[in-house]
Each structure stands twice: as structure tokens, then as C-alpha cells.
Write a structure and sequence with these properties.
With 126 residues, this protein is α+β, with helices and mostly antiparallel strands. It has one domain: Alpha-Beta Plaits, CATH 3.30.70. 31% of the residues lie in helices and 35% in strands. The chain has 3 helices and 5 strands. It has a 5-stranded antiparallel β-sheet. A hairpin with a 5-residue loop joins strand 3 and strand 4. The longest helix is centred in the middle third of the chain and has 18 residues.
Length: 126
């Protein structure tokens, strides 16, 4: 069964403070779908969280907002890891902050978030 092509146009809100220079890597994304009237509040919460993550442990953490996409308005939080073991280690360290973020954002979401982990085999040139 074939999948439809997905097109999204993103606008960076908090770009990564540091890029990754190696070849293949792994990305983790969490896509959040705001309720229409709480989009600005959710954006503020995510901006604050991203800046905390960049300052404390994850300089490659970023947040973007869809400005075009079939899923409607969404915020995408993402991080880049050099290996699966790095992703797993950071996920263990981030349990408490992720739980706190969920508690702050749940009232601002229209539907459950989507989490994705991808392996980038051939990275694009910057």
C-alpha cells in the first residue's frame, strides 16, 4: 500500500543553537496540535522549554511551527542525535522535564501528539 506524499512548510521558532556535522544521525520529533484559541499560549510554553533545553543539555534542540500542512496548525519539537544510544541516554535524563511539559501543554492541545524517531542516512547539505 503506498503512502501519500506529505508536504509541510515550517517556520523556525527556536532554531538549534548548534548543528551536527557528522554524516548519518537520528532525529526525534514530537508534533503537537494546538487548539485554535490556545495556539499563542502553547507557542510561549514551547519557546521557553526549547531555550531551557538548549541552555542546559541540548544545544541542537529546536521548535518550528507549520505554516502549511495537511494536518493543520502544529508545532514540531525536534532534536538531533549522533546515535541511538545517545538518544536513549538523553531520553532517560529528560523524563522529569518531559512530564512537566506534558502537564503544561495538555490543556492547549486539540488532539494527542505524535512522536517520531528517524534515521538520517544521507544528510542534506546545509
Amino acid at each position: 500500500m503506498s503512502q501519500p506524499i506529505t508536504v509541510r512548510l515550517l517556520s523556525p521558532i527556536v532554531p538549534p543553537a548548534q548543528s551536527i556535522d557528522s554524516g548519518a544521525n537520528h532525529t526525534q520529533q514530537v508534533i503537537l496540535f494546538p487548539t485554535p484559541l490556545k495556539q499563542d499560549a502553547l507557542r510561549g510554553i514551547l519557546e521557553e522549554f526549547a531555550k531551557e533545553q538548549q541552555a542546559q543539555v541540548r544545544p541542537r534542540f529546536r521548535v518550528a511551527q507549520t505554516i502549511f500542512g495537511y494536518e493543520g496548525p502544529a508545532f514540531i519539537m525536534g532534536d538531533i542525535y549522533e546515535s541511538v544510544s545517545e538518544l536513549e541516554a538523553v531520553s532517560q535524563q529528560r523524563v522529569e522535564s518531559a512530564s512537566a511539559l506534558r502537564a503544561k501543554t495538555v490543556a492547549h492541545l486539540e488532539r494527542p501528539s505524535i512522536q517520531r524517531i528517524r534515521e538520517i542516512i544521507v544528510p542534506a547539505d546545509n
